[in-house]
Every structure is written in structure tokens, then in C-alpha cells.
Amino acid sequence: MTPDFPPIRMAPDGAPAREDIRSFLDERLHGLAPVQRARSWSACDGAFSQALGAKGWIGVTWPERFGGTASSHLVRYRIVEELLAAGAPVAAHWFADRQSGTMLLRYASEAQKADFLPKMAAGELYFCIGMSEPDSGSDLASLRTRATLDGDVWRITGSKIWTSHAQDAHYMIALVRTSSDDADHRNGLSQFIIDLSSPGITIRPIEDQMGDAQFCEVFFDDVKVPADMLLGESGKGWAQVNAELALERSGPERFLSSHVLIEETLNALSDTPSDVLMGLIGRWAADLWTLRQMSLAVAGKLERGDDPMIEASIVKDLGAQFEQSVSRDLQAAWDDGSIHDDDGELEATLTYLIGASPSFSLRGGTREILRGIIARGIGLR
Q: pTM of the predicted model, to two decimals?
């Protein structure tokens, strides 16, 4: 397979005007410091998510009967792009909007859809994703969390790690093992919708070097999950989760995590910036334009119902490299006389992103995992 990024025109029918989105964000984010806006899709603000839901800007691709507006993926792209560029605190609803809702639409029962999707679209119900496990390394399919059917409930025991915002979420979509008879351990996996308030669940936030705790460990000790909370078909979880990862890896969040730092740098430049700073900004602009075009191409493939797993992995890999390079490159040029940071906000934002950016190549799949997927997809392994 040859990766394909067909050019796409970003003028979606029915999309809110960028001016309207920016006006909403100016009002809601007024007074929020750049270092706080730099957290963006790692920052959880339930009131903001509910305000966004009231505008109809969560789950826009979902059918109207489930709280959406039946809009295209490109409409959603425009909204998300503006949210991330402004540094809006979107983590509360993020995973529900980006992937969990779409997974429910693809695989859930009608009862599950009716129960969860409208509240997700309103910004009131938060989801997290349970994939990675301790000691599984790069092989997700080697997971050991197990579900055993006992009458009308599944009993789940095991653990998950690096689960973003599990401490804030109401539900988790978890990939677990339901059988192990097949020699191929990718078989026998299933997904469940798990109420995180259930007895037997322990959630432990993992504090990072910046003092934040967006990742968590989640432990399941004989947790009872109703049989009707199986998502899709039993034993088909591997195929389902691979479809989910294409949604997770290709969006503008994969290259806009450092965007606030870029804007603050531009605001802090003198009237006569040095050649070094001009070259740095030119490189940032070129990389941003390229990554945006590639990411838009993946959104177009999703709109057509294609499976852009390889392309999404490429966007995620290149995007993480770019996001990490922004703070590193600015740090190297910090003593350049072209930068005037009288209020210290640019330095605070830079300091935060230097510490936070190593996680950018962990969340959503490590660089090594992504390159393995790409290599297999193009026939190199």
C-alpha cells in the first residue's frame, strides 16, 4: 500500500464561521494565561465543555437524534482546529467527541446509543480509553485484563495504564480478553463500556514532572459489567480498536499542542527580528502548513468512509516530532535579542512545554509503534 494524501479544499458546507467560533472563545477564555492555554486538550473544564455542547459543537458528525448535527468530518475539523489554536480546555469531552462517540455509532446497540450519545454531545458525559497495560510493551494484543461471562454479567479483572483523564471520566471503553483459545492473541479480544463508579475499580493518577496528572492507572478487581455493555461483537475487539486508532492519531491535536507557544513568540518579537528567529518562524510555518494539509487529507478519507490507518500514523509521527521541536528550538534561541518577554508569560509557557512535550510522542502510540505500523502497511516488514 502506498500512503495517499489527496489535496482537499477546506470549505465545508454548514460549518460555523471561524469568526463566530473565535468570538465564543474570546469570551470564554478571557484572562486565561498562555501557560494555561498551552495545556489545551490536556486541561479539563466541565463548564467549558457544557457551553460548547450548548452551541452544538460536540459530536457534530453524529445524527440529530443522538444530539449531533449530521455534519461532515470537515465541519468538526474546523471547530476543533479553532479550539486547539486558541488553547481551549477541551479534555472533559475530548475523547467522547473524538473517538468514543464514533465507536458507539459504529458498534453499539440502539439502546447504548440512545443512553450515552446525547449526554456526550451536551458535554455532560465524559469517556476515557482503556488500551495500554503494564508489561505489555509494544504489543497491545498481549494484554492480560480478562473478562469472564457469569450469567448476565461479565466479571473483569486486570489493569490499564496511561489512561488519559480516567479520574475525570464517567465511563471507559476498555479492550480486554474474553477468550484465549486461538494461537493468534489478537483474536479473543472484546471491548466493553465500563461505568467507572462500579465497585472494584481503583483509579490512581500518575503525576508527571510538571505536576500535572493527566495519565492514570486503572485497576479492576472482579468488576461486574452488565452483559449488555459489550461494545460490538465478542472477540472482534482487535478490529474495532484499530478503527478507533485512526480517529485518535490524525487530527489537528497532533500538531497544535505547541501552537500557543508559537503565537506568544510572534507577539514577543521585536520590530527587527534576527535572521535566526525569522528562519525558525519560517520553518514552523512550513511544517504547520504541511501537517495541516496531511491531516485534512485524512479527515477527507474518514468522510468518505476509508480506513486511513497508515496515513493517520504518519501524521501522528511527524506531528509529534514537530510539536516537540517547537519548544526545543525556541529554548536554543532564547538568548536572541529579538525576544522581549516583559511579563514573563512566554518564558512560563516555554518552561511548561519543555517539560510536557516528551509525552507528545507517547500518547496515542509511541514513535516506534507508529513506525512499525507504517512499515507493515507499505510492505517493509
A: 0.89
